[in-house]
Amino acid sequence: MYYVPIVKTNNFLVLDIETFGGSFSTFPQGFELLLVGIRTCFGYTMYTSEPASLELMRSDLADFNGQIVTFNGARFDIPLLEKFVEEILGDTLKINFHYDLLAEIHKATGRRISLDNLSNYTIGAQKLPWDHRKNLRVWREAPEEIIAYNKIDLDLTYDLYLRVLNGQHLFLGDTSVVLSL
User: Fold this and answer.
1) Residue 130 domain-assigned?
2) Which of 77, 74, 80, 79 is nearest to 31 (CA)?
3) How far apart are CA 61 and CA 139, in angstroms?
4) Which one of 27, 37, 103, 131 counts the least CB within 10 Å of its CB?
């Protein structure tokens, strides 16, 4: 586990999870948690599905009074984290303020877009090429690779949310949007 304490005075953090298995036809059943990555302006924190690490993440998120930012977190990351916290810890996940970039884009435009396309159009940066079917093997053999992949997703979401905070446009290819907070 890589741990940088979450500073409680931050006004936002970005959260992204990595999983293996599962099918969206049975979501959230069948998915297994590998890691939870968090980025603040001070650095990264990585949590695993081990009970002690998961409890630390649950506690840190419950104590955090700023915005927890995700990309598609309302439909993926948060429901899965709720499931794991309940199943592994017998507790509930408490998130005070959640901002889902993709949900806000969809609400404002009626469209969905991938993080890769949005970040490419908006800031000229892209995700790492990745085959999620290999997540478990990579986690077992070279966990630093999946951590590096997660950090890029965190960085892209972080940079896009900074644009939201600054009232700047996000570009969706043939249109753009300024999101409200």
Assistant:
1) yes
2) 80
3) 24
4) 131
Write down the residue that tokens 């951590």 correspond to: 147
> Any idea what the CATH number is for the domain that residue 101 is in?
3.30.420.10
Instruction: Please state the φ and ψ torsions of residue 20, each to the nearest 5 degrees.
Output: -145, 160
Tokens of 136: 């478990």
Is 52 a domain residue? yes
Is 5 exposed, middle or buried, given 0-12, 13-18 or 19+ CB atoms closer than 10 A?
exposed
Domains identified in the chain, total number = 1
- At which residue do the structure tokens 């069948």 appear? 30
CB 19 within 8 A of CB 77: no
- pTM of the prediction? 0.91
Q: Is residue 5 part of a domain?
A: no
Establish if 2 belongs to a structural domain: no
pLDDT digits (tens, 9 = 90+) for 96-155: 999 999 999 999 999 999 999 999 999 999 998 889 899 999 999 999 999 999 999 999
Round to whole Å and give the CA distance between 9 and 60. 12
Most distant CA atoms of the chain, gap in Å? 46
